Each structure stands twice: as structure tokens, then as C-alpha cells.
Amino acid sequence: MADITTTAPRAVTNPRATLQDLLPKLVLAPSFAVILIFVYGFIIFTAFLSFSGSKLLPDFSTWVGFGNYVRLFNHPNWITALKNLAIFSVLYIVVCSFIGLALAIFLDQKIRGEGFLRPIYLYPMALSFIVTGVAWKWFLDPGIGLEHVMQSWGWESFSFRWIKEGQMAIYTIVIAAVWQSSGFVMAMFLAGLRGVDNEIIKAAQIDGASTLTIYRRIIIPLMRPVFLSAFVVLAHLAIKSYDLVVAMTDGGPGTATWTPALFMQKFTFGRNEMGMGAASAIIMMMMIFTIIVPYLYSELGGKKK
Amino acid sequence: MSAASQDVATRNSIFARAIIYVVLILFAIYYLLPLYVMVVNSLKPLDEIRQGNMLALPQQWTIAPWLSAWSTAQIGVQPVGLKPYFINSMLMVVPAVAISTMLGALNGYVLTKWRFKGDSIVFGMMLLACFIPFQIVLIPSARILGLTGLAGTITGLVLIHAIYGLGFTTLFFRNYYEAFPTELIRAAQIDGASFFQIFRRILLPSSGPIIVVTVIWQFTNIWNDFLFGSSFSGFNSIPLTVALNNLVNSSTGVKEYNVHFAGAILAALPTLIVYIVSGRYFVRGLMAGAVKG
Amino acid sequence: MRKFLMSTAAVAALFAAPMPMAHAEDSVEVLHWWTSGGEAAALDVLKKNLESQGVTWKDMPVAGGGGEAAMTALRARVTAGDPPTAVQALGFDITDWANQGVVGDLGEVADKEGWDKVVPAALQNFAKHDGKWIAAPVNVHSTNWVWISKKALDAAGGKAPETWDELVAVLDKMQANGITPLGHGGQAWQDATIFDAVVLSLGTDFYKSSMIDLDPAALGGDKMVEAFDRMAKLKSYVDKDFSGRDWNLASAMVIEGKAGMQMMGDWAKGEFLKAGQKPGTDFVCIRFPGTQGAVTFNSDMFMMFKVGDDKKKAQMQMAADIEDPAFQSSFNVVKGSVPARTDVPDTAFDDCGKKGIKDLAEASTGGKLFGSMAHGYAAPAAVKNALYDVVTRHFNGEIDSKAAAKALVEAVAAAKG
Description:
Shape of chain B: flat
Distance between the termini of chain A: 8 Å
Order of helices and strands of chain B: HHHHHHHHHHHHHH
Radius of gyration of chain A: 25 Å
Oligomer: heterotrimer
Largest interface: A-B, 114 and 105 residues
Mean pLDDT of chain A: 86
Number of domains of chain B: 2
Order of helices and strands of chain A: HHHHHHHHHHHHH
Distance between the termini of chain B: 21 Å
Helix content of chain B: 55-70%
CATH class of chain A: Mainly Alpha
Structural class of chain B: mainly alpha
Number of helices of chain A: 13
CATH architecture of chain A: Orthogonal Bundle
Shape of chain A: flat
Number of strands of chain A: 0
Largest sheet of chain B: none
CATH class of the largest domain in chain B: Mainly Alpha
Number of strands of chain B: 0
Low-confidence stretches of chain A: 1-12
Mean pLDDT of chain B: 86
CATH superfamily of the largest domain in chain B: MetI-like
CATH superfamily of chain A: MetI-like
CATH topology of the largest domain in chain B: MetI-like fold
């Protein structure tokens, strides 16, 4: 793809042309400047905070070195949070991608009522978890929810009480999180499928390939960029997952469903341990960057001629 | 827009199609369940909810919870319902979405059609901004809003939302414009069209799908935000999510779940309408470029 | 036509409402989390009182997490240099903010109205900082209550338990009668609320040395192991679905006779009253067995921030109105708590309220009035939450009593550091 920048240099002597040269940068500059301050400036600020003994408000009069980080990694709740993040993010990303792709492929089979089904799959993304969390909590509650209903319908041995069990509760968070985002992933895959070149498929069909083979060998591999986009969106949602945990379990039973985002919020604002909250935020940022930067590098680096 | 892969579909057996329909319908039920729980319980009197069976249809139907959530429920000391807060949210969401979408479009235009040395780095840095946890920017943002005299105003909220939306809007437009033929731009340039003329006359008219995607994304995120809304609003600029949260989160009061569910659906109506009305364009917009990375 | 007139009137009212009625500068902005139902309605009384004196009330409600969301918003407001006039706050949060030097001084009105004499000393420890009044206490909740279904109690012998052993006997009988003996919601703060009462039942000295003084010997000693054993015993009486349940749903279990009793602060009474139940006939309120004569409290206060001179007058007016005995009475009748002033007549209160007022006065004069750990009146937020972690992990069976006592010492030491 030929870039404008590769065209012949314009006459620099013409003041109007100079303005035209500068204009694009001038247009971009304000956005970039606020991002520099409001994102990168604040990250540096948080990094400083994480080395300070700040409690209620930022306080740069006491320095504790890596003290906050040491305390962080000795705190049982943080260890629980990291374990949960690992379980949660792997399951969430894998299940969302799988369901999203499957639904997209199914919806792509000239389905009657697609226009009706699609918004049903998509709408959870539009809702805030402040109250849908309550609906999920009820639904999963064995006393009033699914288990109760199944038993009252005569299936006496039915048991589904994960949300009450420390070992299993994190999986119920996955169920609700998948509910919220898998429709969005479906939309991304559906868009990807609709963009596949017809000719390739026709050629394969002429060669006698079965439907399954066409999907496995040709179409799904073509979805690679969609997988990557979905991965980035889902990974950042997973690391930032806070609302739904608060609404569903608030970290319980016991401390079984703490996540890093919950930890950061609770320590910074609930426990007046701003220094430790900042340390957990920095660790979170580092985790996010290790995921995103390689992706960015491959995307942006790859496209440059 | 003939769906390419759909051509595969025609060869499916009836049996396979039946399975496909069953799966699709099962998933529709999964997605609808929480909404069903909310709707059904919002139409029951509180006593019936206390008795326990939350999946059952109401024995005694009532719309009182809806009326209460709309106009008489206690939100803070005033029994005004959610009604007055819609306008605050609108005043906040519309300009914030407009500004971030417009800037995102311009940024995308510059980053793809007026490339310069280091543009990838600039874009990469803007993209990383999408991933910052908002809790850490709270205190420093508050300081800046205070210094600029925007603390507690809708303008301040608009500014903050616009800034933290820039990463995503720039990403969407940049990926969309990336696929736009650069030759057209160059031809227009040779014809003497200016920077803004090219944008307005050539790029903007064909940006419909991506504008839909961006607006949906931004509208939903800003409408549903609670953290910024509760921290940066003043007594007369409280957005709807904060009001909804105030309705459902009483500390030591009686919890009227039916009113809570009714309120939640009311508060979600604008975003639901946006999704349902523009859902088809959403997929089209994603298709047109947003998913390409 | 009538419709048109009405809507015109409504529009007119809409525009008229924000117009300053009195002097533009006489207004208070109040950040609080009493945002719904009865408590918000109760606060409205204060708003009306102020408005009748020409002070406009600018409402800034932020609910969530028992005030956590409001405290988050408060940080943003203070950082922006734009603090509200008055902020609802609890215990050590007030002290923490006072240490930042951002709070106002209510000395003028407190001296005039003689608050020193009528507010219990235990509350003054928080409402005053360096000898200056900085907050106006609204109420006193006491947390060591047990709410028993009368029907379930009658079926279990009819005598309200007065000692731990009697309590266990009653719980056993309720279990034999086929109901859930203890209605409880498994949230950290609810677990900790019971823990407060259990520790207090092992002696007021023990409560003071462990919860208030945070003495490591008391926190990790044999008595603490016994306290955790008692928690484990109580755990055996809750139903299997207790985890994550809201406290009011636990109350509902008692109201409907599905559960025998609930151990919860006095705000639970509102749930019983709202369901049409009468104290004495439908439900019984007793102090947690073994804590008679002692009270663990939690007091809602309005902390006053440093404001410009133009807003001082309204701020003082608000403080005076909060401590007005008539308001204290009417507010607390609705809220289920008891007045923060000890000289408010108890005539408007029901039996449980009267008992609460009497208990508070006795505990205060007898030196048995202690801040509740679970509600932020015994130790700062970091320590309180560290204790939550241990108590809730133990209650959910993740660790045994000995390990819990040991973990408590470590967690408290880490949080203090």
C-alpha cells in the first residue's frame, strides 16, 4: 500500500504548503498530548505511589522502597487473586472464542430469524453489571435459583451449587462473564466470516472438499486476525474484571473469588492502603503490557513495508 | 454483501440443520435468562419475591415497581425515581461520544493517510491507553479537574470520558481507513483538495459502518460507567448509573428487588435500543474493518 | 385542558425548584450513602428542617459497599479541592480524614449546645479530634443483637437464652424442630458482625485487649481460639446456602419462620417491622447471650469539611439541626437505631428501641460501650479488613481455629505496618 509520505516532497518555500504539511500533525497533537498526560503521566504517578507509604491520599513524604510489593506478594488475597485470574482468563478467553466462533458459523448457515437471534446474542454487552449481577446471583443460588427450580420440577437429585463453594465459585463468574461478552465475539467472527472470499470456497467445493473440511482447513485459519482482535479485547476485559465479581460474590465465599482488579479497588479505596493498591495496579499494568505489546508489535511491524 | 461462507451452508443435511437450530435456540435461552429473571421479578409484588421462586411467573401481576423506579423511588433524600437523571446522562454521553468519535476519525485519517515517521509508535501508545485500569487515574484526574475548575460539572465528565475513549475510537477508525484506497486521496490531493476537504468529501461519506460501531461502543461504555460518574459529578450532574446504584444499594434499608430490576431495565433501555436498532449495522461495521486488528 | 394546566404547573415547579429560595450562599452539599427506602426518607426530615431555616440542601448520594463508593468519591472531591460541606462517615475513617487536616471545626455550635455533656464519651473519641468537634453524630447502632422468631423460640422451650450454653441448647432444639436455627448471610462484614459479639461474650476485657488495643497476646491466645471455635459452632447451625446472601434475606428467613434467629445489628428491626411483625409478639430482641450490659456500637456521623466562610453559617446550622433532640428522635425511630444524645426522651420508640436506649446509657456509664470492629469503630480500615479476611476464611472452613488465631496476629500486624 503506497503511503502519502512516499510521494515527492512538496515545495517547502510555499507557506500554505508548509501549513498543509503540519496540519495532520497539528490535528493529531491534542489527542496525543492528552493521552501522554492522562495515561502515561498517570501511570508514572502510580509507579511513584507504589513506592510510597501512601494510605488515605497520595503521600510522598514517606518512601518504603519495594515494601509494598513485598507485602503484596506475601498477602494471601493477592495470591488467590492471581490464581483466580489465571483460571478465569484462560477459561473466559477460550470459552468466549469457542462459543463466539461456533455461534457465528451456525448463524452463517442461512438461518431463518438471524435478524431476531443476533440482537439476543449481543444485548448482554449493553447492560451494566450493577443489576444483571444480582439476576445472575439469584439464578445460580441453589436455594432460589436453578437448583430449586429443577428440584421443584421433580428432578430431586439435581445439584448446582458452585456459587456457594469456595473451590467452584470462580467458575460461576466465568459463566456470567461469558454470557456478557460471547455475543460480542460472535459478532466479530460473523463479520470475519462474511468477509471471506467466495472464490476460495467455490474452488474447494469443486475439489470435492466436505463442509467440515472447508471450515477446518480454509475458513477457520482465515479467521486468525479475528482471533487476535478477540483475544486482545477479552484479555483486557479479563484483567479489568471487577464489576461482575463485586455484584456476584464480592470476593466470597471467604476470599475465594478475589481478582486483581478487586484487590486494587479494595486496597486503594476501601482499606486506605493506597501504596499497596498502586503496587497491585503496576503489576496489573505489567501483565496487560506483556500481552498487548507483542500483539501490537506483530500487527504494526508486520504491516510496514 | 453476499455472504460468501453461506454458500457452504446449502450443502447441509436436514439433520445437521436441525441440530444447528437447536443449538442456536438453546444459546438464545442462555442469553435471555437473566433478562427473564429481571423482567419477571420486576412485575411481582415484593412478598412474592420473598417467598422464593424467582423463575416463576407472577401470581399477581403489578406494574407498581416500574412506576416507582421511574418516578417515586427514593434516590438519596429525594423520592424522584430515575426520571431526572436521564437528562444528566444524556448531556454527558452525547457530547462525549461525539467528541471522541470525531477525534478518533481525524486521528485514524492522519495515522493512515498522512503517515509520518514514528506514526506506528504514536498509534501504539494511543492503543495501549485502552487498557489502563480506570481506578488508577481517578486521583490524578480529580486533581486536574480541580485545577481547571471543572470538578463536579458535566463538562468535566464529558472531558474525562472523551479522553479515555480516544484509544478505542482511534483504533476503530485507523483500522477502517487502513483499507481505504489511498489512490483516491492522492488524486484528490493533486486536484488541490485540502486536508479537511479530503476528509469531509471523500472519507467521511463512506465511514457510515465504522461510525456506527464506534458510537455503539462509546455510548455503551460511557452510559454504563459508574466510577467516573460517582467521583467527578456534582450534586446537579449525577448520571443515571450512579442514581441506579443508589436505588439498588441501600446499606441498612429494606431492599425492594422488584423496583431494582425495573430500574435496571429502565436504565438500560437507551443502550438496548441502540443495540437492537443498529445491531445489523454493527456486524456490517465490524466487517468493514474494525476486526482486522 | 386540565392535563395541560397540570403539566404547565409541573414545568413551572421544575424551573422554580433550583431557584435559591433564601440567600444563594446558604447551602450545604451532603455526600452520603443513605440512598434508598426508609433511611433516605428519614434523612429527608433533616433536609426539610434545614430548608425551613433557609438553607438549601444539595444532595450528593453515592451508595455501595457500606460507604466504600462514597469514600472513593470523597477522595476525588478532596483531591479536586472541592470537598462537600458534610460527609457521612464512620469511625476511623473520620480520624483518618482529620489527620489530613481537611476537616472543619464545629466548636462554636458544640459549645453553645453543650454536646460534651450529652454525647457518650465513646462517640466523642471519633467526633472530636485534638479536642475539637469535627463531626456531628446522628445515631448509635448497636451490633450485638439477636433477633429470634417468637414462634420458633416457643417451640424450642420459650426461654430466651442468656448464656452461650443456653444459646447452643436453643439452637439445637430449633434444629431438631426442622428449621434452620441460624439465619445468616455469608458476607465478610456479616461474619465479622457475629464475631464481634462472640468475642464480647468471652469478656469485655478480652474484647478491649484484642479488638481495640490489638494486643497480639489476646489476638493469638487460647481465648481467641475459643472464640473461633464458637464461630465454627455457630457455622454448624446455618443452612448450606448461606454464602453471599444479603442480610435482609436472612432476616426474611426468620420472619417467615424458616430460620430461628439472626445475629445482626439493630437495623434488622426495620425488616421485621416492614413485614408487619411486632416486637414481643412476633419476634424477640435480645443481646447476644453473654454480652448483657455491654454494647458494641456503630455510629453514623456527619463529618464536616473545611469550607469557605460563606458556607460556614449553613454548615453550623446543619450541625445544630442534626443534634436537635426532636430530629434525633424522629430519625432514629425510622432507622431502628438509638439517638446519639443520651438526653432524648424514649417515648416515641418501641420496646426494642427503649431497651436499646437504656442499654446504651448503662453501657456508657459502666465503661462497657465499645466500638464495633466489624463496623470500623475499633480499628482503622486496613486492620478491620485484615480481620474480615481471617474471620471469613475461617467461617468458610478454609482454615481451622488455631490457624485462624495465628493468621489473625499476622494479618493485623501486617495491616498496622
